[in-house]
């Protein structure tokens, strides 16, 4: 009888192992617009609470990049590999690895926030599209956190009255101008873009108009766009 029960328990365990889905590696890209004089500087605690995996077995790759007056800015990449816990895993070591991972990431964020920068241009759109296109062929969960007011000041400028009139009267023409400067990949399905900015009464109109341009360009490619942290971003 004892042998029979042992076989049943072993069978249940093996079945559970066969049906379990291995954790995937999530890919999170964080773009922070450093061209805003009074722009929001996200702190490490704020970010970690939003992107922390729900399962200790889950892996995550974080790419951190500042937006400046050039398109291609240096990137920092932090990788926490997937892990197998339970009978074959070391949960204590995994907790230590996770703690070390987020400390390194947090220290980099805080160091970046301390830097004093001044830029004459703002390359938001092209920086974003370059990152979306990089994520396109990657499998797994893919999310982009964009901390920006979307105030482009490069090929298109919110400080140019003619450009603002064009945005007001013909946003589809502005969208074509954007696409001409940087074309998104054909298939961006599976990518979630969170634009993290709280517009003031003064710039709410510009932000809404520019957001509409972004949506008209990226949503047909499959990008899911949300504004603000409406919920914890689950990995």
Tag the structure with descriptive keywords:
235 residues; Rossmann fold; six-stranded mixed sheet; 6 strands; disordered N terminus
How would you briefly describe this protein structure?
The protein has 235 residues and is α/β, with parallel strands linked by helices. The chain is built from seven helices and six strands; from the N terminus they run αβαββααβααβαβ.
- End-to-end distance, in Å? 44 Å
| Low-pLDDT sequence parts | 1-21
Annotation field: number of helices:
7
The Rg value, from CA coordinates, equals 22 Å
β-sheet strand percentage: 15-25%
Characterize the largest beta sheet: strand count, sense, and whether it forms a barrel: 6 strands, mixed
Count of discrete structural domains: 1
| Helical residue percent band | 40-55%
**Count of distinct strands:** 6
- Output the CATH topology: Rossmann fold
Instruction: Average the pLDDT over all residues and give the rounded result.
Output: 84
Structural class: alpha/beta
Topology:
Elements: H1 2-19, E1 25-33, H2 44-51, E2 59-67, E3 75-80, H3 91-114, H4 124-135, E4 142-147, H5 161-169, H6 171-181, E5 191-195, H7 204-218, E6 224-227
Parallel strand pairs: 1-2, 1-4, 4-5, 5-6
Antiparallel strand pairs: 2-3
């Amino acid at each position: 009888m004892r042998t029979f029960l042992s076989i049943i328990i072993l069978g249940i365990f093996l079945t559970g192992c066969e049906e379990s889905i291995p954790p995937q590696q999530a890919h999170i890209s964080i773009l922070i617009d450093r061209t805003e004089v009074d722009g929001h500087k996200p702190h490490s605690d704020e970010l970690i609470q939003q992107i922390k995996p729900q399962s200790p077995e889950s892996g995550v790759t974080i790419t951190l990049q500042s937006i400046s007056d050039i398109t291609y800015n240096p990137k920092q990449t932090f990788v926490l590999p997937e892990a197998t816990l339970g009978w074959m895993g070391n949960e204590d070591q995994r907790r230590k690895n996770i703690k070390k991972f987020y400390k390194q990431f947090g220290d980099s964020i805080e160091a970046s926030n301390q830097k004093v920068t001044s830029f004459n241009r703002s390359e938001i759109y092209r920086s974003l599209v370059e990152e979306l296109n990089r994520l396109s062929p990657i499998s797994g969960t893919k999310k982009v956190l964009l901390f920006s007011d979307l105030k482009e000041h490069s090929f298109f400028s919110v400080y140019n009255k003619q450009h603002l009139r064009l945005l007001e009267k013909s946003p589809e023409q502005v969208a074509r101008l954007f696409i001409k400067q940087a074309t998104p990949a054909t298939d961006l399905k599976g990518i979630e873009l969170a634009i993290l900015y709280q517009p003031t009464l003064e710039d709410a109109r510009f932000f809404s108009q520019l957001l509409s341009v972004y949506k008209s360009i990226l949503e047909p490619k499959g990008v899911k766009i949300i504004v603000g942290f409406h919920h914890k971003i689950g990995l």
